[in-house]
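Single Protein Entry

Contents — chain, fold
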Amino acid sequence: MATIDLNSDMGEGFGRWELGDDEAMLGVVTSANIACGFHAGDPEGLGRTVEAAHRRGVVIGAHPAYRDLAGFGRRYVDATPAELRADVIYQVGALQGLARSVGATVHYVKAHGALYNTIAHDELHASAVLAAVKDVDPSLVVLGLAGSPLLDKAREAGLAVCAEAFADRAYTSGGELVSRREPGAVLHDPDVVAERMVRLVESGTIEAIDGSAVRVRADSICVHSDSPGAVAMARQVRSALARAGVGLRAFAGPAG
């Protein structure tokens, strides 16, 4: 039976402002990428998200970002490698502390937003992030963009990796994500998204924004929780995969 992981970004509210329905999404996904405070998330709220994920048996990952709270981590920050390494260590360590407080464990690291896109190809910032992960805990799995040089670099550093595809994002013909600044970058039709993910699992391809077929080999699928109708979309993806005979299984942690 074919299996794949289904993940989503969580803990992205701040104080009185809530973003996404984490409780509902935790009933759908197998892995939770939990914010670490630099792009979203306050300590109390993050603690609640960690506890909820642990209670539901969802595998926990740290979701560090550039220091960009106002921009939701979607703006590039020209940090030095030393600054970025320290920032990532700080963020992952904070989430580890919150996890330990409820008897949970952080099993993987997935960068957020601009940091995710930058380290997919930028050697300088990728090296800093990977050094931070290895220094904090070399058993942590690196979740990154399928087909990106980051995954090879992580393997060379002795880190385990998981390749990720995005359910609700458009792809270029080169296998990269279409910039959010471009029209059509974010997909909103649950039926279309679900069909794309079944095709991904069954054939290892996904339709690019220009209509061409792109080879994407992935072991995890992400549905962004901050998009309108995100929970319904995640449920549709999960249902479509089940109908196609694809099981859900976390790529890391006790169930991985």
The longest strand covers residues 3-10. The helical segments are 22-26, 43-56, 81-100, 113-119, 123-136, 149-156, 190-203, 230-243. The mean pLDDT is 95.
